[in-house]
Input
Amino acid sequence: MRFARPLPWIAAGLLAALAAAALLPGCQISTGFRGPGYSRDAGVTLPDDDDEVVVVVTYAQLDNTRRAPFDTHSELVVQSLASQPGHIGHSRRKRLFGSEAWTMTIWRDEAAVEEFLRSPTHRAAIRAGQGALERAKFERFSWPRNAVPPTWEEVDARLERAPWLDYRTR
Output
């Protein structure tokens, strides 16, 4: 089949591709919040009398040329979360075609967070992935148990106030 005027079709396709190329780097994608201590219908399912849980958030800006170990070990950490005592749930987010990554984990209490941070899987991830870090922000805060999980907008508002740690100078 022959089109009488193919140029407008080609031009429209090129414009769409340019628009996508300009917009996609700013787009973020996140996983749904899930975990062994959370149900969409019931909320937090871990037995506990406390009205609050602990939210831990990491925001990392990465060197894409050195990030393979970071990504590999991040995945291993996520796979280990279900077996961590006190882990309620988690979500991850990244910028498409970018060098930024976020994690949000929610825990029964501070003791569960500290136990996770000392776990062999997490410690190995820190050692292996640190070379990819350019800058990072970390935030830990209490959150109402009956409002789990916070939205990424609520998390971003807290991260705005957190200080940057610069790993390029270390």
Remarks:
- Residues 28-166 form a domain with the Alpha-Beta Plaits fold (CATH 3.30.70.100).
- The radius of gyration is 20 Å.
- The longest helix spans residues 6-23.
